[in-house]
Amino acid sequence: MAGLISTSAKTKAEGSIVEGRQAMLLFPAWAVIGVLLVVPVLIMLIYSFLTQDFRGGVIWEFTLEAYDQFFLDRGLFGDEAPSIEWTYILIFWRSFLQAFFAMIFCLLIGFPTAYFIATQSPRSRSMLLFLVTIPYWVNLLIRTVSMKFLIRDTGPINEWLIAFSVIDEPVRMINTAFAVQLGLFYSYLPFMVLPIYASIERYNFVLSEAAADLYTGRWTTMLKVVIPSVKPGIVAGCILVFIPSLGAFLAPDLLGGAKNFMIGSLVEEQFKGQAGDWPFGAAVSMVLLTIIMIILLIYARSQARDAEGAR
Amino acid sequence: MMARVGKSIRWYPGFRAITIACLIILYAPLIIVMIYSFNNSASITVWGGFSLIWYEDVFFGLESAKFKQATINSLMIAVMAAVVSTAIATSASLAMVRGRAFRGKALTFGLINLPLMVPEIVTAVATLIFFASIGFERGVLSILLAHIVFCIPFAYLPIAARLQGISSIYEQAGRDLYATPGETFRLILLPLMLPGILSGFLLAFIISLDDFIITNFVKGAGVETLPTAIFGAVKQGIKPNIMAISSIMLVVSFILVSISYLISHMGREK
Fold this sequence. Notes:
The structure holds 2 protein chains of 2 kinds.
Chain A: H1 2-15, H2 22-47, E1 50-53, E2 57-62, H3 65-71, E3 72-73, E4 83-84, H4 86-118, H5 122-137, H6 140-151, H7 156-163, H8 177-202, H9 206-213, H10 218-229, H11 231-246, H12 250-256, H13 263-271, H14 278-310
Antiparallel strand pairs in A: 1-2, 3-4
Helix pairs in contact in A: 3-14, 4-8, 4-11, 5-8, 6-8, 6-12, 8-11, 8-12, 9-10, 11-14, 13-14
Chain B: H1 2-10, H2 15-36, H3 53-60, H4 64-98, H5 105-117, H6 120-133, H7 140-164, H8 169-176, H9 181-210, H10 213-218, H11 226-235, H12 240-265
Helix pairs in contact in B: 2-12, 3-4, 3-12, 4-7, 4-9, 4-11, 5-7, 7-9, 8-9, 9-12
């Protein structure tokens, strides 16, 4: 078996039209992503250690001021003994919770949907899959604006509820934490369905039949057989929902108003808004990026371990 | 056969209802906005009958010049970003799929997908700081450069998937008949790869057209794309003309995704 693989790989490389040109073909991708993404992230790291210039820029002097401001409270005049500054940690914590609940709600709706689609006939399967895919490609700004339109105090939902005498006063939904939660859930729902679907499509239903033959109940089969088999898809879906939710800007900004700050709004305010503190914005971005890279690293390692185990 | 035997085992109560609910959740806001874009009323919630006045307003109204310029910018940036990123992705996919294994292959794969892993807001901050620190003027060009980066993985995925599905015997036959590597690529491989390349191009185009966060950071003052213009207008309250523009963009996205979907399923060996 091993010998067969190595021979086929050899013939492939000999006959390959890219032989000797690989570096040349890869160079544009390396250069563009390297110069326009990797280098900028490194410069951002440097910026987070520079001194703020009040006109919205930096002075090239090394300081830990930005991280100090993030983590430590030194009182109004900066002369008190440092204690932990909770403002920004709380914004991170709240973003974490909202991203987490967005993930849970997406999973509760997304998993049954993915499962249902995967068990349909090929024709209706591709039709349903296409319907779930479309919103994934529709402008996120427009989707968020649509949601804002829908849940405003004078929006269609409130108007209809009043028209049918369900409520007398409009229910306040916009500019609440609920609205942000709903917005995140709505934004990233397709991200949950698609990877889970891909897993279930590869799932061999003979396993479910075997479980049923051994008198396992329907829901026990789901919990003990189906879900463990499609776990990689579930984990991928959770990550695809959690990560963009954590750094989301549009949902908190358009649906949450001024009170429901998330990490994305905090960062944006340092560059586009009133605060204008670039080093602090860079530091907040670095903290966010570090958290996400740790999550992805844990994910990659668990994947590698699963692949080991499968072999 | 399996479908018949497995039917009852695969079935779970309530899953169909949840699927229907999921589709309603995904589509209801979009459909309602589309309906209200045809509203013959200056108020955005009171239904005043069917009319096209807001579409007329988008094309000929007070703000039409602003939206027209924004649309031109958006289309120009999207076309160029899609062309460049598709070319880069095609070239990279040839080396990654057809080339032999090399040290750093996993790293290169990670690099190509890096724009998908870094949160958009972080990419936006990093790119803004980068342009500011090298004194690069912020405008259409800075937006274009930023877009090329995050379009690469979206173009790469369908192209690499297509290439993986093409057996290398075709190129080998060409090489055996003394075609140069260039001729083999141009006359044999490229036509076979074309559906993947087109699909990648369209996806990159849509992604560029849709981007708001990164564009909002790297655009200069006064330069607007369609999403940033819409965002600016929404900040002052949702007016019916925004719903009309949104509906147009929805239809455009729908058409482009459908074409991409059809192309990528065309002539697939299955």
